[in-house]
Amino acid sequence: SISTPVYNMQAQVTQVNTTIQVFQALQTKLQALQTQANNLAQTGTLSPLAAETATSSNTSVLTASAEPTATAGTHSVLVTQLAKNDTLVSSQLSQTGTSISSATGAGTFTFAVTVDGKATNVSTAVAAGDTNATVLANMAKAVNQAGIGVTASVVNDTPTTSRLVFESNNSGSTNAISVADSSGALMQNVGWTSSVVSSRTASSSTGAGYVNSSTSALDANFTLDGIPIVQGSNTISNVLTGVTINLTGTQSSTANPVTLTVGSDTSSVQTTINSFISA
User: Fold this and answer.
1) Shortest CA distance to 222 belongs to which of 261, 176, 260, 253?
2) Is the pLDDT of residue 273 over 70?
3) Which helix (DSSP H) or strand (DSSP E) does residue 274 occupy?
4) Can you give the pLDDT at residue 5?
5) pTM, rounded to two decimals
6) Percentage of the chain modeled with pLDDT above 70
7) Neighbouring residues of 229: CB distance < 8 A, sequence distance ≥ 6
């Protein structure tokens, strides 16, 4: 039959295609094996076999992670204070009142906001008859648009009153906030007078001031192996080489310290070896 050679040719094509598919599958598997082998072949801190882990005996107080550069060991940590963001609160002001615009008059007024040692001038326009709610909202908007490391917001503490709040974007005493009028008296008229700011007067239910009157309250305080340490952040990576500690809660000074254990990450090593075997 004339069709017999065609059938034979089709069978050969099918066989060749099957062979190609087999080699393609083999190539994929070999590439996967090569990737795993290359990963295992890395040396020093790049080696997956050098993986380290850090575990905490009380994760409500601290958690931790470790890099391959970490040294195995056990440490005791007692956390007595967490780092906080500085917060400055204005006087309680009537939302519909016009005490600010009446005191300043119409115009564009500038105030300086200092955080992390850097002072930035921020300007806000006030129109005649502006309500306190309008002025506070415009001040908050101007500060937020300036991108100066401070977040401003207006809090309606009662249905008829509001307060302007400045909060530093980063924790620690180095990020403490200071404000001062450059032109006009917007700071003075929201309650942030020079005496309130310079003495870091504590805020009250209606009075202007700082949530934390002492800048030392903005830093984290803890002891590591009995050594007292002060840090401006609750994420600490410069105390133990290769270890990042995240403070999450506080303890009394007489509490039992948290045990921080640094050692080989056997689970990670096992996963890496199993992946190589599977490949």
Assistant:
1) 253
2) no
3) helix 266-278
4) 73
5) 0.77
6) 86
7) 221, 222, 223, 239
Instruction: State the burial class of residue 9 (Cβ atoms within 10 Å of its Cβ: 0-12, 13-18, 19+).
Output: exposed
For residue 272, the model assigns a pLDDT of 57
DSSP code string of 189-253:
HTT--HHHHHTTPBP-SSS-EESSSSGGGGSEEEEETTEEEEESSSEE-SSSTTEEEEE-----T
Q: Which two tokens stand for residue 23?
A: 């080699």
**Measured distance CA(142)–CA(155) in Å, rounded:** 16
CA 119 to CA 66: how far, in whole Å? 37
pLDDT for 134: 98
Write out the two tokens for 235. Answer: 């994420």
| Token representation of residue 30 | 């070999």
* DSSP 8-state symbol, 176: -
| Locus of tokens 């500085």 | 86
pLDDT band at 17 (very low <50, low <70, confident <90, very high): confident
